[in-house]
Design a protein that fits this description.
Layout lengths: L3 H23 L3 H21 L3 E3 L3 E6 L13 E5 L10 E2 L3 H7 L3 E7 L5 H4 L7 E3 L7 E6 L4 E2 L3 E9 L5 E5 L5 E6 L5 E7 L4 E10 L9 E8 L5 E6 L3 H12 L3 E9 L2 E2 L9 H5 L3 E5 H5 L3 H12 L3 E5 L6 H10 L3 E9 L9 H8 L21 E7 L4 E5 L5 E8 L2 E6 L6 H4 L3 H15 L9 E2 L9 E4 L6 E3 L5 E3 L12 E3 L5 E9 L2 E9 L6 H18 L10 E3 L3 H21 L8
Parallel strand pairs: 2-3, 2-5, 3-4, 5-6, 8-14, 15-16, 15-18, 18-19, 19-24
Antiparallel strand pairs: 1-32, 7-9, 9-12, 10-11, 10-13, 13-14, 16-17, 20-21, 22-23, 23-24, 25-26, 26-29, 27-28, 27-30, 30-31
Helix pairs in contact: 1-2, 2-14
Length: about 600
């Protein structure tokens, strides 16, 4: 469909050109050329009378005060001041509950200027439809970013990462709930640090992050919530041949309380394992993970190999343990299970990081000693054993599970539909146990098996990182019967957001700090999940930095033509109408005067 403006422009242009051309054709003199030009200008003025050009609109700028806004904000004549609930008092500002309310009250506003720390999540959830300006405040000194530890199985290592501002060259310490130092790191020039520890009994615990600047002055402590989960025993199948590696692998499985069945073929039909394990569909359906060496995998019959490949697609985890250099046929058998790697024929040295930076941290990580393993065995100063690993090259789909100090792959895995296949490249990792580093050996195998085994069906909702009292948080992975019990016993039913789809997400505002318990009714009875909520004053620097960065991104996304209020409109038509009428009058007079026919006989 042709736009009215386009159609009018075409008709007026055609008429003006036709009239001017006819005039010039009849009278080829200077006066005719002048009248033709005036006729074209008249056509342009007629078009501008019908469709005046767009002119920018004025409008007000909404100045929004947020947390930590200065006490005195300079305002221009066309600026209106409002204050959000978290903003400091300003007698000139109009108090509003949120930004959306302010925009509804003042429809003449066509720009936004944000002053202070920035907008909270409450005000960043919608598109204002107006250009927004925001200058982030300097980040506060101290902790500005924190990656809390994820839910960790008992006996595994957890990691805490973060970033500081103004503390380069200082130290970061992690203290356990008893106040003992678990780890200590020097803060890098970029302000970042990474450290961790070992979990103990299942449950919720609060560790402490203590930061010191380069001047050795201590900043306020930061609570670090850690959830240690109790998993049902993994059902594992161990297939291979007797070897020192298998001996200590079975000991790890026993100490880790795995439900292990093993088939260790010594030749001549002799099985030194615990049970006559068959790799068929029924056994594999009841297993969580299969640990098999490359020789045993190559010797499998077609039926067992097909059953294993099918079970992987249905969620089974498999760990292939290398015992010899990889060949082309070996890699093909791995590829049939969903693992694609190259190389594996050369052995490289494994670079081991220190067990701990000092004896106190090593004792905290290991816990109390026993008669079998005294606390003084293998101190932090003892040399590391010599280990080797098969050098494999993997693609982007290969995810490392255990790496050495130089980033070399000790183990890693690849996804195949619902299941995962891992490769263990360490050639003689049992030497760790012989050199008193059984805890490191156990951790390597725990990380590898945990990465590929079937996910358990324990009720474990996903909650927001670092929840604080009085702040909105999101809880996902719940059902319609889910509810939360606060530390004071108050119960809150969770209403699932219908737009969340299958995620099953709901919003929750914890009223106070402490342990809040999420419960829901399941097929096996009532299921529960505990989460730690910190005080509202906790993580102040982290929250301030996040708000500033998020507001800066939000403001940048608003720099588009307004969809709420037009930024321009058509100007007045009367000046063009007056000019057109004046020019038309001049043209009429000129035509009567200049183009009047001469009398006969002159």
């Amino acid at each position: 469909m042709v736009e009215p403006e386009t159609l009018a422009a075409a008709l007026i242009t055609a008429g003006a050109l036709a009239g001017a051309g006819r005039l010039v054709w009849r009278r080829r003199d200077g006066r005719a050329m002048l009248l033709a030009g005036m006729m074209l200008v008249s056509g342009a003025l007629l078009y501008l009378t019908l469709f005046p050009p767009h002119m920018p609109i004025g409008g007000e700028t909404l100045v929004v005060l947020t947390a930590e806004a200065p006490a005195k904000v300079d305002l221009a004549p066309n600026e209106r001041l409002v204050a959000l609930p978290e903003a400091p008092d300003d007698p000139r500002a109009e108090r509003v509950p949120d930004l959306a309310t302010a925009l509804r009250r003042h429809t003449q506003v066509n720009r936004i200027r944000i002053v202070g720390r920035g907008l909270t999540q409450r005000d960043r959830d919608f598109d204002a439809g107006l250009p927004a300006a925001f200058t982030p405040m300097p980040r506060p000194r101290g902790l500005v970013r924190l990656g809390p530890p994820v839910d960790t199985p008992a006996g595994s290592v957890f990691t805490v990462a973060g970033e500081t501002n103004g503390l380069a060259g200082g130290t970061a310490e992690l203290l356990d709930p008893a106040g003992r130092r678990v780890d200590r790191r020097v803060i890098g020039a970029d302000g970042s640090f990474t450290m961790g520890g070992t979990t103990r009994a299942p449950g919720l615990a609060t560790f402490t992050l203590r930061l010191r600047g380069a001047d050795n002055k201590t900043l306020p402590d930061t609570p670090i919530p850690l959830r240690t989960i109790a998993q049902p025993p993994l059902r594992a199948l161990l297939i291979g041949s007797p070897s020192p590696e298998v001996k200590y692998l079975r000991r790890w499985a026993e100490d880790s309380q795995l439900a292990l069945q093993s088939r260790l073929e010594a030749g001549g039909g002799v099985n030194l394992g615990s049970d006559p394990v068959r790799l068929d569909s029924a056994n594999l359906r009841n297993a969580d993970v299969v640990i098999i060496d490359d020789t045993a995998l190559a010797a499998l019959g077609g039926g067992s190999r097909n059953a294993l490949a099918r079970a992987i697609t249905e969620g089974l985890g498999v760990v292939i343990r290398m015992t010899a250099p990889a060949t082309g046929s070996t890699r093909n058998s791995w590829r049939a299970l969903g693992l694609s790697v190259e190389g594996g024929s050369e052995v490289l040295a494994v670079s081991l990081p220190p067990l701990a930076t000092d004896s106190d941290m090593l004792a905290s990580q290991r816990g109390l000693g026993s008669e079998d393993v005294p606390a003084l065995i293998n101190t932090a100063d003892d040399p590391a054993p010599d280990l080797g690993r098969w050098d494999v090259q993997a693609g982007a789909a290969f995810v490392p599970a255990v790496v050495d100090a130089d980033g070399g792959i000790v183990s890693g895995w690849q996804q195949r539909q619902q299941g995962r296949v891992a490769l263990w490249t360490a050639a003689n990792s049992y030497a760790l146990v012989l050199n008193g580093q059984a805890d490191r050996y156990y951790q390597w195998w725990s990380d590898t098996v945990s990465a590929v085994s079937r996910p358990d069906r324990t009720f474990r909702p996903r909650v927001s990182d670092l929840p604080r009292a009085g702040e909105r948080m999101t809880i996902c992975g719940i059902g319609p019967s889910a509810r939360v019990t606060a530390p004071d016993g108050a119960k809150t039913a969770l209403v699932i957001d219908p737009l969340a789809g299958a995620e099953g997400c709901a919003a929750y505002w914890p009223g106070g700090e402490g342990v809040h318990t999420i419960t829901q009714d399941g097929q096996t009875g009532t299921q529960s999940f505990d989460m730690a909520v910190a005080a509202r004053s906790a993580f102040a620097g982290v929250v301030a930095a996040q708000i500033g960065e998020a507001t800066d991104r939000w403001a940048a996304s608003q720099r588009t033509p307004s969809t709420r209020l037009p930024t321009d409109r058509r100007g007045a038509a009367w000046p063009y109408l007056a000019a057109w009428l004046l020019l038309a009058g001049i043209m009429w007079w000129s035509e009567r005067r200049w183009l009047k026919p001469k009398p006969p006989g002159t």
